[in-house]
Task: structure prediction
Amino acid sequence: MPFFAWSPLYSVGVAKIDAQHKRLSEILTRLYNGVWEGNKSLARAFNEFRDYAVEHFATEEKLMELHGYPDLPAHKKEHAGCMARVVDYQAALKHGERVDPIEVCRFFQKWLEDHIAGEDRKYAPFFKARGVK
Result:
């Protein structure tokens, strides 16, 4: 069973964004599974999560910029906060500090759930009104 199961409740009505959110949920599940496989697997999954989150955030922000989404600065700040946590966790792992991997997974699970269901869902009507699919 996935650690973070995608649900249509998370749909924002933009196919590319929905597909990226689904992929992030799959990567988060791999990150969670990496907890049980040791730090090397966890680090690999972390890198994948980081890289894909960067790509996804850039896609969202570019779309928002293109269509003049008024809450873009606040949304960028949300993304930056998430990436700061990724960097913090990765630095701790790299320096051999004790990192509670369950805490890491739960943080990102909650962050994704809250961000997609809250912040991302806010832009759904905006993009729909502009015909973005």
User: Anything to note?
Assistant: The chain has a mean pLDDT of 89. Helices lie at 15-35, 39-67, 72-94, 101-129.
